[in-house]
Every structure is written in structure tokens, then in C-alpha cells.
Amino acid sequence: MAVYQRINKDSTKVWRAVIRIKGYPTVCDHFERKQEALDWSYETTRQIKLGKYNFGKQNHKKTVADLIDSYTQDGALHHHKSAKDTKRQ
Q1: Which domain of life is it from (predicted)?
Q2: Structural domain count of the chain
């Protein structure tokens, strides 16, 4: 667990909390106050260790087949001049 201060491009200061536990993906978030970042990191660490934390999108990994299917289904091919060739490739 690490909490440190960052300065954004617009010169505002935020606190970033980063949790790295072996065997789990890295989790991070930004807060306006240091105490908020510390509280969140302690609570999130506890939930991860208990197995109750929902990692959400980080656990879902897409395959190339998933990406190709989403590309063909979202209508992107209809705007190509050679849609048939693109689909075949």
C-alpha cells in the first residue's frame, strides 16, 4: 500500500492510493485528502484479503476473437469502401 501526492496539469493536488498485493491485480484511486486515501486503502486491502473485493473490469480479459466480433458488430465495417475485403481478412 502506498499513498503519495500528485500535482495535476492544472496545478491541483490530489492524493493517489495504490495497493499492490502479491497474487492480485494492482488497485488505485485518487482522493482530495490524504486521510481519505489512507482510509480507502486500509478498507480495500482488508476486503481484498477477505476475498470480498470486486475487481470488476480488471478480471475480464478480452481475446482477439472478442475484439474482432465487437469490431464487426458495432457497424464500423459499413463505412469502409472495401468492407467485404476487410471482413474476409
Answers
A1: Bacteria
A2: 2
